[in-house]
Amino acid sequence: MEALIELIDSYEGLSDERITELVSQLDWNFISTVLGFDPREEDPDSGEIELAEFLVCDVGDELLEAAVLIVDDPRINYLVEPEIPSCPRP
Known about the structure:
By secondary structure, this protein is an all-alpha fold. It has one domain (2-79). It has 7 helices and no strands. Mean pLDDT is 83; it is low at 78-82.
């Protein structure tokens, strides 16, 4: 969950390299369970940056709300109503 939290919380300020690192650390079983599909399989041509943008901008709230139910982390509680970053990144 750490990677997901950092990705959503810090998305606008992250370098492409850091986004790629975080995407590689994500719990895809959790993401697939919450969304009902695996975003990597929906568009196999998408790279890490495109996946990150989808996860943050389109389904970030949904993922964080689900994370609150399974993880006792004060940062997630703070992030349940985050200001979703402007998408796409500047």
